[in-house]
From TrEMBL:
GO biological process: defense response to bacterium; innate immune response-activating signaling pathway; plant-type hypersensitive response
Stored Gene3D superfamilies: Ribonuclease Inhibitor, Winged helix-like DNA-binding domain superfamily/Winged helix DNA-binding domain
Designated name of the protein: Uncharacterized protein
Organism: Panicum virgatum
Annotated Disease resistance R13L4/SHOC-2-like LRR domain residues: 179-506
Keywords noted in UniProt: Plant defense, Repeat
Keyword Repeat: yes
Disease resistance protein winged helix domain residues: 59-128
Keyword Endoplasmic reticulum: no
Length: 510
């Protein structure tokens, strides 16, 4: 109720309308039907585009954890997100839709270490959505508890029945698929009709399915209206080249380790390529100038890297290949990605003189997460300051040399929730002890630092939200401190939210 009223203006008549609309629902607050009336009022009070987005959540099973970007990309494929402002992408607008549903308390965010990356729907809200979905024929759900009418016209199909009984298969077989716009299959791949039966399909989400060797994707290229294609584990590990026929395709999500189709550069409407397997990027990738997400891939040549210089809309980049990353042009390209929100580098091993990101000298102002693995910097870069990184929530990197003043700068980052640093102090013999001062790291909940020499000191009022501390202690330095000062005090008692401390005690030969 508070969320509903907060969205109303300070107009007495508007508030009276709210009171009159929900008054009957409050007469018996133990009655589920009356509670649904209140929830229904919140639903009908929303603009139509938000209603469609909310109803789409009825396509997912109870207690599902729904990936945020997955949901927004489905909304985009359905055409629910339209009317962007200059400089605003469809994804950004979709993110604002989801935030509004969260603010109305109709969707619940689920947080990881640094941001909400998924969401869920309360059981009572989901019951309402499923009921409204059936009434409006928005979506047809097949699960163990629903008996479908064969004569029902299917617009969107959600296959949630894991048992895949003969009766369920018969129900699906008797349905007309000619008007189906969207198929979301959770665990009932055997119930999926032949792809040739779909005429106007825009969404095919099979990400939770194992697509076995005897399952054919040969008609996939005929789904010419497809905007969203999500495929689970594929056997054999081969995507058909016919995917290049899907000229309206916006999102490609696939779980396999084979190569991408060689003609993927023809799909100029693509905004997201997400592959769990790090395939090499094919030639022609530079034609995909609308691409906003590219993960998880390898860049196998300088030529491909130069071609990727055209991808200026990237928000998410996840790469693993090391040969190209040490090239100066990679850092120069990063300087141009002004819309980058997340950079992830995995499986990277570098020599001491190949700290590839020292030439990265401009901060992307929208960056939220830097997960660089073993890649990083010789010193903390000048742009890693609160003024330039107001939204940075997660930092994982290698820093060869970190000073107390650098640590203080990190402590002033206003949104930082997760900090994971590997330092070169242990091998360089740098005697550094970091002090977290009062008021520093106001949002930090996870701290992991490895490779430094002396232990932390936490002052009263530092890291008020820290829950997890993971640290390395070198036995030799610890004993020296204890002998010289009669002991040492880390100040752990000053960390009021601390729940878990993990320490690794190492003995270095002198």
């Amino acid at each position: 109720m508070a969320s509903l009223l907060a969205l109303k203006g300070r107009d007495k008549l508007e508030w009276y309308k709210v009171c009159d609309s929900v008054g009957t629902g409050l007469e018996n607050n133990l009655d589920v039907d009356n509670m649904r009336k209140i929830l229904s009022f919140s639903y009908y009070d929303m603009p139509s585009h938000l209603r469609n987005c909310l109803l789409y959540l009825s396509m997912f099973p109870k207690d599902s954890s729904i990936d945020k970007s997955h949901l927004i990309l489905l909304w985009i494929a359905e055409g629910f997100i339209q009317g962007t402002k200059p400089g605003q992408s469809l994804f950004e607008l979709g993110e604002s839709y989801l935030n509004e549903l969260i603010n109305r308390s109709l969707v619940q965010p689920k947080y990881n270490a640094y941001d909400y990356m998924s969401c869920r729907v309360h059981d009572m809200v989901l019951d309402l959505l499923c009921s409204l979905s059936r009434e409006e024929n928005f979506a047809t759900t097949l699960n163990d508890a629903v008996d479908l009418s064969p004569s029902m016209k299917v617009r969107r199909l959600s296959l949630q029945n894991s048992t895949a009984t003969d009766a369920a298969a018969l129900q699906v077989a008797n349905m007309s698929m000619e008007q189906v716009r969207s198929v979301v299959c959770q665990s009932a791949f055997k119930l999926l009709p032949a792809l040739s039966s779909f005429r106007v399909l825009r969404v095919l989400d099979l990400e939770e399915c194992n697509i076995s060797e005897d399952s054919s994707l040969e008609k996939l290229g005929n789904l010419v209206h497809l905007r969203y294609l999500g495929l689970g584990e594929i056997w054999p590990r081969l995507l058909p080249e016919e995917i290049s026929n899907l000229r309206f395709l916006q999102t490609l999500v696939v779980d396999y380790t084979g190569n991408l189709p060689s003609r993927i550069g023809q799909l100029k409407d693509l905004i997201c390529i997400r592959v769990n397997g790090k395939p090499d990027v094919p030639k022609g990738i530079g034609n995909l100038t609308s691409l906003e997400e590219l993960s998880s891939i390898d860049i196998d040549s300088i030529e491909i890297l130069q071609e990727m210089g055209n991808l200026m809309e990237l928000r998410v980049l996840d790469i693993g290949n090391t040969d190209v990353l040490v090239h100066r042009s990679f850092a120069e390209w990063l300087c141009k990605l002004r819309k980058l929100e997340r950079l992830r580098i995995t499986e990277a091993e570098f020599e001491d003189d190949e700290l590839i990101l020292d030439d990265w000298d401009v901060a992307p102002k929208h960056i939220r997460a830097l997960e660089l693995g073993n890649a990083g910097f010789s010193r903390l870069p000048d742009w890693m300051k609160p003024l330039f990184l107001p939204h940075l929530c997660s930092l994982e990197a290698y820093v060869e040399e970190l000073h107390q003043e650098d640590f203080k700068i990190l402590g002033d980052l206003p949104a930082l929730r997760s900090l994971d640093l590997r330092l070169g102090h242990e091998w360089a013999g740098l005697p550094r002890r970091f002090t977290a001062a009062a008021g520093s790291f106001p949002c930090l909940s996870y701290l992991r630092m490895k490779g430094y020499v002396q232990p932390f000191e936490f002052q009263q009022g530092a890291m008020p939200k820290l829950e997890t501390l993971d640290s390395t202690f070198l036995w030799w330095e610890m004993t020296q401190i204890a002998r010289n000062s009669g002991g040492y005090d880390l100040g752990l008692r000053n960390l009021s939210s601390l729940k878990l401390v993990t320490g690794y005690v190492a003995q270095r030969n002198r």
